[in-house]
Amino acid sequence: MEYTKTHPNIPIIFEDNHILVINKPHNVLSQEDHTGDPDVLSLCKAYLKKKHNKTGTVYLGLVHRLDRPVGGLMLLAKTSKAASRLSQQIRDRLIQKTYWAVVWGNAPANGMLTHYLFKDRSRNIVTTVPADHKQGKQAVLSFAKLKEHKGQSLLSIHLQTGRPHQIRVQMAQEELPIWGDYKYGKDNKPDGRTMALRATELILEHPVTKEEHHFTLAPPDAEPWDKFDTSSLLNA
Fold first, then answer.
1. Cα(93)–Cα(55) distance, rounded to whole angstroms?
2. Distance from C-alpha of 167 to C-alpha of 177, rounded to nearest angstrom
3. CA–CA separation, 145 vs 141, rounded Å?
4. What is the rounded distance in angstroms from the CA atom of residue 67 to the CA atom of residue 169?
5. 141: how many CB neighbours lie within 10 A of its CB?
6. Nearest-angstrom CA–CA distance, 174 and 221
7. Residue 64 · residue 191 · CB < 8 Å
8. Omega before 224 cis (within 30°)?
9. Tens digits of per-residue pLDDT, 130-184?
10. How many Cβ atoms sit within 10 Å of the Cβ of residue 34?
């Protein structure tokens, strides 16, 4: 596998002249913010600049974002045309994204969740609010339970909407908080654990060739993922 050879080092899942698909490390920003910490967009731009020996500005479009604690498949566009077409696919809900999460509790076999969310930008906190809240935005997701183990459940989650912190807040609201989520979970004191939420599957139409691309990513061999035998699920 190829890597960006940056700090942190980012695994490259797929690359051609139009798109770049990476395995975003947990706890790395998707794009630059006020902290000045390393971010995916800047790191991947640096990788492309060095790879192609470019002296000027490198174009790279952020098609979608993952919360800082979330890892997994992330799609970037290497041209403005690709970015525009992929963004349209996002708006038309043609790009399929699947997340896996380990949650506390014995989740039902499947479910559809609808909440209204409000983001307090000053505190970077998202809360559920009544449907008639003026600033509330509808959030919808569906999930299926893949495995369970000693009071924890492994879920496959599909988003129908893309709201900040959506999966984390909605699962916590249903008393199924994500393992290692210090902001919305049951354990609110950071202890070095990596939050068990990952983007594991991505299906899209290539913005130029129009071919379907299907990417999957196994969870790491680490706690709490190692409590669940996922080999049969990935090979299904």
1. 37
2. 9
3. 13
4. 12
5. 21
6. 27
7. no
8. yes
9. 999 999 999 999 999 999 999 999 999 999 998 999 999 999 999 999 999 999 9
10. 5
Distance CA 107, CA 151 (A): 9
The conformation of residue 169, written as its DSSP 8-state character, comes to H
Joined together, the tokens standing for residue 221 give 């061999």
Residues with Cβ within 8 Å of 105's Cβ and at least 6 positions away in sequence, in order, are 151, 152, 153, 175, 176, 177
Number of other residues whose CB lies within 10 A of the CB of residue 203: 14
State the amino acid at position 91 in one-letter form: R
Among 90, 93, 73, 103, which residue's Cα sits nearest to residue 168?
103
The catalytic site residues sit at 67
Unique residue bearing structure tokens 């038309």: 92
Euclidean distance between CA atoms 192 and 110, whole angstroms: 30
Dist. CA 105–CA 175, nearest whole Å: 8
pLDDT digits (tens, 9 = 90+) for 87-144: 999 999 999 999 999 999 999 999 999 999 999 999 999 999 999 999 999 999 999 9
Does residue 72 sit in helix, strand or coil? strand
